[in-house]
Design brief:
Distance between the termini: 36 Å
CATH superfamily: Survival protein SurE-like phosphatase/nucleotidase
Number of strands: 11
CATH class: Alpha Beta
Strand content: 15-25%
Order of helices and strands: EHEEEHEHHEHHEEEEHE
Number of domains: 1
CATH architecture: 3-Layer(aba) Sandwich
Radius of gyration: 18 Å
């Protein structure tokens, strides 16, 4: 397939680079258009009140590559409208650092939004994310985003799974179906890790901001949230916690049903 690849962690994320390498090893022709800087938790927002600049760059990915100084949605919209030299068959977004499980995270996710923008253009779309523990996440940030040890091993395996699932799921998805495949990999992830069908967990996340400082500013803080999902069917959160690969089909047409 010809694939447009994006993410929300930015063009220099090695999680994106590993995904690109795995997709190419699987025989796909890829084009990359990713944010110039990290755009996590931007959801499906588009940059309205300023111009967005795109530019061709070389990140040694072995494919045509651009950045845009906007959101993942900006990147995909501009790519499909103006940058790509050919039509593509689908959009792949990721690999995100951290899971995108549950309604709380899916709606806020820039990674899922990059895939959703592809769906808005009538294309099959896949979002892929890698669960990490808080300890591993802190260690990754301390290393400037360069994974090592078990995380690096897991990332390479997850990228191979992502390439395999792209080849299986995207050709089977009808065009113009408003569908995003949301895949989350557990930590660690192994070559024999099983993929299970899931639904997004029902997860409340109140109190994400600190009380006001003396200057009136509030800072984003982490909250454990509350999972209020029914026991059945299997949720993405429960699946990843059980060390399986979660695959949820996000069919946005259901939002229009009564």
């Amino acid at each position: 397939m010809k694939l447009l690849v994006t993410n929300d962690d930015g063009i220099d994320s090695l999680f994106l680079h590993e995904l690109c390498a795995a997709l190419q090893r699987a025989g796909h022709e890829i084009y990359v258009v990713a944010p110039a800087t990290e755009q996590s938790w931007t959801g499906a927002s588009k940059t309205r009140n300023r111009a967005v600049k795109s530019s061709a760059v070389d990140r040694h990915l072995g494919c045509p590559t651009w950045t845009a100084d906007g959101t993942p949605s900006d990147c995909v919209n501009i790519a499909l409208g103006h940058l790509l030299p050919t039509k593509v068959d689908a959009v792949v977004s990721g690999i995100n650092v951290g899971y995108n499980c549950s309604l709380a995270f899916i709606i806020a996710s820039g990674t899922v939004a990059g895939a959703w923008e592809g769906a808005l253009h009538g294309l099959p779309a896949l979002a892929v994310s890698q669960d990490v523990s808080e300890e591993v996440y802190v260690h990754l940030k301390e290393r400037g985003g360069v994974p090592d040890g078990q995380l690096l091993e897991t990332l390479k395996v997850s990228a191979e799974h992502a390439a395999r699932l792209a080849g299986e799921l995207l050709p089977a998805t009808p065009p113009k179906s408003f569908t995003v495949h949301n895949v989350n990999f557990p930590f660690p992830c192994r070559r024999d890790t099983e993929t299970k069908a899931t639904v997004p967990a029902h997860f409340f996340m109140p109190g994400l901001f600190s009380p006001a400082n003396d200057d009136g500013t509030h800072h984003l803080v982490w909250t454990a949230g509350e999972d209020v999902s029914p026991k059945e069917p299997l949720t993405d959160l429960a699946c990843v916690a059980a060390q399986h690969i979660s695959h949820s089909i996000l069919d946005y047409r259901k939002l229009g049903q009564v």
